[in-house]
Predict the 3D structure of the following.
Amino acid sequence: MRSIKLYVTLFSLVFQSMAFGAANARPTSPVEKCLNISTNLTNDCMNRHLKPKTIDSCYKMSETIYSNHSKENIKNYCFYNISEFPSLNTCVAASKKFYIGENKDQALFECVRQFASTISVDKCMSVSKMMTYKDKSNYLAGHCTNL
């Protein structure tokens, strides 16, 4: 009797998860279809599908992507290939769009690198405190003291 209850429970869970997955399936955008082909690189797909090539349209496109991994790859593309930051503050604001801490920290390093000639020690230290990982924060703080 116990085994029948177990099988019924397992079948019910499997059926519910399949129904839930089908209900939450989202239609994929053309760029997501492109990204799902293993031979296509993010740069290739973005060059084909991003029109106009502006920072706003790039980040908006990332929001149409279902896969978090692909979404983060597109944000990397936007940050490093499309963005031209007029100030440290705009660069730091763009780094906050990343969900993965590693990517956010790398973007913050890039912001400090781009504006190293104009950044104050205090501002550099405040950027280091925004980092996700403590060891990277400490590394940047050490760099800041040498400015």
